[in-house]
């Protein structure tokens, strides 16, 4: 378990602060993550990677020459926000465009996509690529739905090495696509990980059993088998991966592969070497030539006891890129022919001279609030009270939300919702203090929630509050029908952003009936408090009904059967919030 921490909510930020203090030779901090200590060479494509905390050396440990130019770092097991990603990418960009790379998870797809749109709007050519190497998370016919696990490393490295060679953005992207299409991973686990501040692991494995097909966010495996010997584990990993080869390969014999045996946190190096001796032998028997194997902790999951095997099937070009030198805090290979930062941690130029690099960790200044009517400022007080009620109900149920989420997901929903709702309330309070109207209070809260929570829920709640803020504005009196219209717009925005529909076992299963009930009640002429009460009752029933659904979206999808009988965490938290907001409306009626 994670034993050394202060405030669990601050764990990711404090870990990143310590990492940058320890590795000034390679990285410098910027808002949202880190970039190389030395500037990106002019005109070179900037490869920016990222994901949640809890996976070191992914992602910050892979920033350095020959590897990534920057890494956006999110909260524990939660994607970084679009603002964080944008900040890191803007700091890393040097005129050659940006390639954003990440594991294939819903929150990462949402936030990296939003960041790419913002960068493009600013004139920075940007492309995105999601690594999807975990064969246990979807079948070959649905490979685009697969998770990204330890296959991140060879795909990131191929793209970064291509960028280091000076290739243009489209060619760097094609390299990433080629490497991603030829990378497969499979893993097993013997116990789950424990998040900072938690008193129990996200999942447990019965004595003398192992979980098969694990994720790297504490998700349980897709099945269980008897606990193997080291050789039996190696055979399972190798045989499983050899069953699925890239379509252009007729068999493993005569092929070359980059091989990664990855420890997930508690399986240590000597154990990994025992397993690898058999992995190497089995691949050799299959006629596979192993190229520069890696054995160690490369993509972890806190203290999870587990291992994964990754094979990247190489052609001449991918082998060249895999063998290319790199110098990052947690990954070094070969020798680079140009100087990096000096031993004091100060970046140097090509002629070896020190060059000062400013540290950007202040973030943008808060803009002044726009003018608002008296009626909207009065409504803003009610909005602030509602956001306070949201933060309080989330805080009191955070552990429960994490427990529900851990049944078939990664257990971070309570943490993310707490961080997001707390940040939203603080931002709203500051905007209200400055005299903002209801729309601006909500929009500031939206940005803060998305930024601090990260993950899928952060993006979706940011979208909800932003839609409400746009509907209410800063000039008009927010009557019941206007509020209901804003909720309807929020429902549509969430479905457009996340791609989920009713029946997928997500928050949409509550948001849609809640919005419909609120619109119907206000159309009947009910005042906002009465209409909201009726809609909140509908939301509570809808949330309970998700217990009978099988998930079709997100991290819970591969573990669908495990979630039967348990409501969706996002649906449950939304129902709790609708009831808490009703209380605030009554108090300010």
TrEMBL record:
GO MF annotations in UniProt: kinase activity
Segments forming domain DhaK: 7-331
InterPro entries in the cross-refs: DhaK_dom, DhaL_dom, DhaL_dom_sf, Dihydroxyacetone_Kinase
Domain DhaL: 381-583
Pfam families referenced in this protein's UniProt entry, alphabetically: Dak1, Dak2
Protein name: Dihydroxyacetone kinase family protein
Membrane spanning stretches: none
Record keywords, A-Z: ATP-binding, Kinase, Nucleotide-binding, Transferase
SUPFAM superfamilies: DAK1/DegV-like, DhaL-like
Annotated region (Disordered), positions in chain: 331-373, 547-568
Stored PROSITE patterns: DHAK, DHAL
Organism in which the protein naturally occurs: Streptomyces hyderabadensis
